[in-house]
Design brief:
The chain has 107 residues and is an alpha+beta fold. The chain has one domain: Gyrase A, domain 2, CATH 3.30.1360. Helix content is 40%, strand content 22%. It is built from three helices and five strands. Strands 1, 2, 3, 4 and 5 form a five-stranded antiparallel beta sheet that branches. Its EC number is 4.2.1.96.
Length: 107
C-alpha cells in the first residue's frame, strides 16, 4: 500500500475511481456498498478487512446490515483523500470478491 499521505487532486481521484469497481466519491471520502450471500460471510469480510486495516494502520468506517456492508474511506489526518484510501479500497474490493460478493456505488 502506498505510503504517500499527500492529498489527491480531483483528477487523480477521478482516475483512481475509474479503476475501482463500485466506489464513488462522497465529499472528502470514497464509499462503496458490498453485498454478500449472508450475515456470516459479511462478518467474515469485515474480519479480514479489520486485519488488513490494522496491518497498515488505516481504518475504514464500516456499517453492517445483515449481508450488506458499507465501507467509507478518508485519510482524516490529512483532511481528505490520499493514495492510502484508493489503495485500501482496492484491497477491500478483493476481500469482497474473494468471499463471492460484489461492490456497487449505491445500496
Amino acid at each position: 500500500m502506498a505510503e504517500s499521505k499527500a492529498l489527491l487532486d480531483d483528477d487523480s481521484i477521478a482516475s483512481a475511481l475509474a479503476d475501482l469497481t463500485g466506489w464513488e466519491r462522497d465529499g472528502d471520502s470514497i464509499v462503496t456498498y458490498a453485498k454478500l450471500d449472508d450475515f456470516v460471510t459479511a462478518i467474515g469480510v469485515v474480519d479480514k478487512v479489520a486485519e488488513d486495516a490494522e496491518s497498515v494502520q488505516h481504518h475504514p468506517d464500516i456499517d453492517i446490515r445483515y449481508n450488506s456492508l458499507k465501507f467509507k474511506l478518508s485519510t482524516h489526518s490529512e483532511g481528505g483523500l490520499t493514495a492510502k484510501d484508493t489503495d485500501f479500497a482496492a484491497r477491500i474490493n478483493q476481500r469482497v470478491s474473494d468471499a463471492g460478493g460484489s461492490t456497487q456505488s449505491r445500496a
